[in-house]
Each structure stands twice: as C-alpha cells, then as structure tokens.
Amino acid sequence: MSEPTLPTWENVKVEFEDGIAWVTLNRPDKRNAMSPALNREMMSVLDTLEVDDRCKVLVLTGAGDSFSAGMDIKEYFREVDKATPVGVMRVQRESMGWQWRRLMFFPKPTIAMVNGWCFGGAFTPLVSCDLAVAADEAMFGLSEINWGIIPAGNVTRAVAEKMTQADAQYYLLTGEQFSGKKAAETRLVYESVPRAQLRTRVTEIARVLMAKNPHVLSAVKLAYRRVKDMSWDVSEDYLYAKAQQTYSTDPEQGRKHGMDQFLDEKSYRPGLQNYRREDKK
Ligand code: COA
C-alpha cells in the first residue's frame, strides 16, 4: 500500500525514520520562533501524525542551532495587538491548542529534543512532551521578564509542573539563562548529553518505547497526565476503570501473555524485561 502523502507545511518539517516522526520547527532564520502560522501548522501536524502508522514515537525539535526562541515577538505579539479581542482569542487558542492541549494528550509517546536556544513560550511544548532530553550546550531562559511581560501562554504553569520550586522562582524572576546540564538538574528535562550525542540518545530512548505494547503505553501516558489533577479517591476509581478498559481493548492481549510467560513458561521476569511480543497473537 502506498504511504499517505503529507500536507504541505511551510514552518514545520516532518520526517519518518524507523517508527520515529522527527517533527522539526523550521524557521531557523527566526530561531524557530512560534508564529500564528506555525501554530496552525502544528495543529495540522499533530492531527496528521495521530493516525499515521509511520509515527510510533514523535520527537519535537528545532532546525539549526535553536529548539525555539519562544513566541514570535513580532508576529504573535506586536501584529496581533492590532486584532480584535476575538481575533486575539483565536490566535491564542491555536497556540495553546497544540502547545499543550493536543501535545500533552497526544496518544503516542513524545520526546522533546532540545538542541539549542529554548526561551519563554517554548517551555510549554517542552513540558507537554512526555520525555525531554537536552544538549548540554543548549541554552534555556524564561526571558519574559527581560522584555516586560509575564510568562503567559501557560509557561508559568509548565514551569510549576516540572522545575523544582527554588529553580522555577529563581529563573522566572531573574530571566537568567541556564544550560542543558542545569535544565536536567532542575528536572525540566530528564537528562542532558553532549550535543554530538543528542540524536543518538533520543533514538535509543525512542527504540525502548517502540518495543513496548503501544496500546498500553498510550494508556499509561494518558493516565499519568489525568491522575495528577485528581484526588486519591477519584484516581483510584479512574485507574481501575482505565485498566479494565485498556486490557479489554488491547489488540495484542499483552496482560495475558505477560502473565503466561512469567507464571507458566517461566521464560522472563517482568521486573527485568518486557514480555516477548512476537508471541502476542
Ligand atoms: N520572536 C521574533 N523574532 C525572533 C525571535 C522571537 N522570539 N527570536 C529571534 N528572532 C529573530 C530576530 O528578530 C532576528 O530576525 P532578523 O534576522 O529579521 O533581524 C533573527 O530571529 C535572529 O535573531 P538574533 O537575535 O539575531 O539571533 P542570535 O542567535 O544572536 O540570538 C536569541 C538568539 C534566541 C538569543 C535571540 O534572538 C533572542 O533573544 N530572541 C528572543 C528570545 C525570547 O525572549 N523569547 C521569548 C518570547 S516569549
């Protein structure tokens, strides 16, 4: 069967490689600043990749030496200042639409690969990815204070979600830059590696994810996002219900094979590795 043709995107590049969809914010001349046009395209990219089997893991990165310099100060702020209140709302809705609403709940695993500059608005999609790996040399900054605005676009919320409190407050208030190494220390990203090894490391993590049962992996990531805002009572109920729904709709019946291979065949140990998925049918 021929592979589906992708829509044409001007500001985002999508490439497939062995199950990974490399999604590259592609405005290197503008340090991949996120304009209204880019935001609209990212909504379309996520819609498309959600149902494209060539995407098993989505990696979000930036072209050239930047991840993203945040919101486009000219096209997202100055030019939109002239719009009507409804016009402003529409631009903001498209931005938030992908930067956290769609990305955080994208049904497949997502990894942010922070290759360089990462400022302001870029923190929202960064935190909305399930995992994040940065180059040691990448430079981060909550630069809003430096140009007289508060970190909106849910940046402050994203920072509160991931960074340690002391680090969040320090960097929000000072606007000081910090490296990829420091981003890992603050827990904003999972780890940092030398830039020369960044793609290899991200590919390695993506391969680990792709070896898992994709149906269950999707349920795990979505459940994690949901329960964080629930009480323990509600979460208990939700998770039992979600678990039941996940097993009963799992095309490869992973739970059964996982139990059979451990308890009957004694062929693997769940604490140490994954069940054999080739036995899944
Ligand atoms: N919005 C709009 N344009 C941006 C931009 C942004 N966030 N970040 C960079 N650009 C544009 C610059 O205006 C410049 O455009 P020009 O070539 O038409 O003059 C181009 O990208 C290159 O930027 P420049 O500043 O020359 O690159 P640099 O490599 O010397 O510095 C940064 C890179 C990221 C440190 C610097 O561009 C910067 O501080 N950007 C703003 C970061 C920010 O505060 N973002 C938060 C927004 S919420």
Multimerization state:
single chain
Let me know the average pLDDT: 96
Figure out the total of helices.
11
* Low-pLDDT segments, ≥5 res: none
What's the CATH architecture of the largest domain?
Alpha-Beta Complex
The helix/strand class is alpha/beta
Number of self-contained structural domains = 2
**Strands of the biggest beta sheet: in what spatial order?**
1-2-3-5-7-10
CATH topology of the largest domain: 2-enoyl-CoA Hydratase, Chain A, domain 1
Percentage beta strand: 15-25%
List the ligand species.
coenzyme A
Given this structure, which CATH class of the largest domain is correct? Alpha Beta
Fraction of residues in H or I helices: 40-55%
CATH superfamily of the largest domain: 2-enoyl-CoA Hydratase, Chain A, domain 1
Question: What is the H/E string?
Answer: EEHEEHHEEHEEHHEHEHHHH
Gyration radius, rounded: 20 Å
Topology:
Blueprint: E1 12-17, E2 20-25, H1 36-50, E3 57-62, E4 66-68, H2 73-78, H3 85-104, E5 110-114, E6 117-119, H4 123-128, E7 131-135, E8 139-141, H5 155-162, H6 165-174, E9 177-179, H7 180-185, E10 191-193, H8 198-210, H9 214-227, H10 232-249, H11 254-264
Parallel strand pairs: 2-3, 3-5, 4-6, 5-7, 6-8, 7-10
Antiparallel strand pairs: 1-2, 8-9
Helix pairs in contact: 1-3, 9-10
Coenzyme A binds at residues 30-31, 33, 69-74, 117, 119-121, 143-144.
